[in-house]
Amino acid sequence: MKVFLNGQLVDKKDAVVSVFDHGLLYGDGVFEGTRVYNGNIAFLGEHIDRLLDSAKVIALDIGMTKQELIDATVDTCRANGIENGYIRHVVTRGSGTLGLNPYLCEKASVIIIADNIKLYPQEMYDNGMKIITAGTMRNMPEALNPKVKSLNYLNNIMAKIEAINSGVMECLLLNPQGYVAEASGDNVFVVKGNKLITPPTWCGALDGITRSKVMQLGRELGLDVVEQVMTRYEIWTADEAFLTGTAAEVIAVVELDKRSIGTGTPGPVTHKLVDAYRKLVVEDGIRIDF
Ligand code: PMP
């Protein structure tokens, strides 16, 4: 396997960063997760835009343009023969001192890994997922804005630990006001009548790329798509619920906190959106010329 590291494709065994890298010492950096479907890097432009925005917010100079990042991503997939898989972009503050000061770090470490992925078992896509509400609250935007896809994922990991300890794979996080934010690694939607509802990002959600594509697909299906502040009441009493994310794609949620949602099986709107999304991911993106 070849990994892109600081301008070069190197063997996996040589793809190493310093133990003084602030990405390791402090979670000081940003990342992206992108999928490749049949040689099409789905929504790559949007992912690179979000990476650059995240970096800007944390005052991190990536040192590469959008086009350079796109070209390096395509090269990394091509070098590894990845026609279907998952790409991880990681940009850290780089190697510095043991102190916090990011300005003492030499320059950003830019990493691109293209590999295979398997997130949830097929059974969960067929029958839907059961989830719980985590006691861990979502970071509030005034502290560490969840719109920034930073390497600091401890908030999400703390919640994920609760989910796994409760015997499920995912969980819902609420914001400090008790409103629904998102899942530990995905955005949340509910269907009620003709409405497709998701919380606004200011409630503490990442501005998910799958989320925005699914909102668009929902509009094309004639649904009334709205961003609305919600509590768990809206999920417990929904007709359908599902999660969206690059890795998870669109996956039904059939139970939250032991309350079954709707019929307790993946609903018709979820099915339609799953199908529409699967069509879109092979069309919208940047093709790898093998
Ligand atoms: N929320 C969080 C916390 C995430 O980490 C992710 C990405 N896995 C998402 C939402 C979904 O975002 P996207 O659709 O852009 O992958």
TrEMBL record:
Query: Which InterPro entries is this protein grouped with?
Result: Aminotrans_IV, Aminotrans_IV_CS, Aminotransferase-like, B_amino_transI, BCAT-like_C, BCAT-like_N, Class-IV_PLP-Dep_Aminotrnsfr
Q: In this entry, which stretches build a coiled coil?
A: none
EC assignment:
2.6.1.42
UniProt keywords, alphabetically: Amino-acid biosynthesis, Aminotransferase, Branched-chain amino acid biosynthesis, Pyridoxal phosphate, Transferase
Q: Which cofactor does it need?
A: pyridoxal 5'-phosphate
Q: Which EC class does it fall in?
A: transferase
Q: Which Gene3D superfamilies match?
A: 3.30.470.10, D-amino Acid Aminotransferase, subunit A, domain 2
Q: Which family does it belong to?
A: Belongs to the class-IV pyridoxal-phosphate-dependent aminotransferase family.
Q: Describe its function.
A: Acts on leucine, isoleucine and valine.
* Name under which the protein is recorded: Branched-chain-amino-acid aminotransferase
